Write the structure tokens for this entry.
Amino acid sequence: MKVEFHSGVAEPLAHTCRLLRKAHAAGARVVVHGPGALLNQLDQALWTFDALSFVPHLRLRNGALPSAQQARTPTWLVDDVSAVPERDVLVNLGSDMVDGWQAFNRVIEVVAADESAIHAGRQRWRRYKERPGIELVNHSAAGAG
């Protein structure tokens, strides 16, 4: 399994919007997890960040399950990963490891540029590193506005 850290991200919402646009173009089924308020902001940002493209997405709160029609939506913003059926990629915007991360083929950890996020990101890196079979990759956004 591949776990990628996007570290030193100055604007996590904009960065995540670009990640999700790229994942959608590649046909990936993505789950984004993080604090509810941040997911709500991401939900809004995905509607407005690029006038020429749209990332189809669904905001699922508190472990809610989508209808059969909604389940076809490729990108889900969720508070609770445990209720999510099989998906390809997990994007974590939170400061803790996501329970259930092992169910995904790929994990992307978005780490903001502030000191507390960097510290939490380092802790997650160490925890992933302790697991056998994890390929860790760091993409530093430092200096990349």
